Amino acid sequence: MNTLKETYTKNTYQYELVTRNAHAAIFRQMDGPRIVGYEVGYVKSDNGGTFAGVTIEPGERFWSNEDFGSIAWSIADETKAKELFTSLKPKA
Asked: What is the pLDDT of residue 20?
């Protein structure tokens, strides 16, 4: 199973993993050298599959834009992002 990567580029931003545990993560959102904010969310995973002839391995996934407000949140302040991260409990 593929695990969540430590860096991503998405929607013109770069994301760097700050910390994670078995069920959640914090990423620093960067616009070049400038910190834009932090994204906190539950780590998604799936069983992979074949879509339009392309095989995707099972693994963990970075949240999508549609996940915000339900399993992911954008936070401007690092301290508040870490508080939210700490409050996220494993989903039953």
From this structure: 96
